[in-house]
């Protein structure tokens, strides 16, 4: 059943907005973004606080990466990185074969791990960077097992050969 309710701060005026909500992933510019369903049937829905206005943003939703006032970056059920406008239009594939838990979106770039074939039997992950529109793709490091933000200017990268590297992002972050 898993209903979503709204009410005021005193707990009165409780209103059921929607049933069968898996979870709320964010609130932005007066709208709630909720997920209904699982797997290939998962749907991301934008809903007003009173529940009167609803809009399906995308289907086959797996995990959100970043929500802005204008765009939503997310992974679909095929582990493809996608961006869609907040009105549900212009759903665009950015990259496929993404490691599901390895995506960072900052103010200027998207960083992600992508699985690549080395030969018939072996695959490796590489760290990529691209701008927010999905252009200017650059491979930064090969044979990466994980990475994370250390601070706003630094990524910490763990290589499969047990090496640790630090990449400092230049202060002029365009280009």
Number of separate helices: 0
Secondary structure tally: strands? 17
- Rg of Cα set: 19 Å
What class do helices, strands and sheet pairing give?
mainly beta
Largest sheet: 4 strands, antiparallel
Poorly predicted runs: none
* Element-level helix/strand string: EEEEEEEEEEEEEEEEE
Helix-residue proportion: under 10%
**Overall 3D shape:** elongated
Major β-sheet strand ordering? 3-4-5-6
Strand fraction equals over 45%
Report mean pLDDT, rounded to a whole number. 82
Give the CA-CA distance, first to last residue.
49 Å
What is the strand and helix layout of this fold?
Elements: E1 4-6, E2 15-18, E3 23-28, E4 31-36, E5 43-48, E6 54-59, E7 61-67, E8 71-76, E9 81-85, E10 92-95, E11 98-105, E12 109-117, E13 123-131, E14 138-142, E15 144-151, E16 154-159, E17 164-168
Antiparallel strand pairs: 1-2, 3-4, 4-5, 5-6, 7-8, 8-9, 9-10, 11-12, 12-13, 13-14, 15-16, 16-17
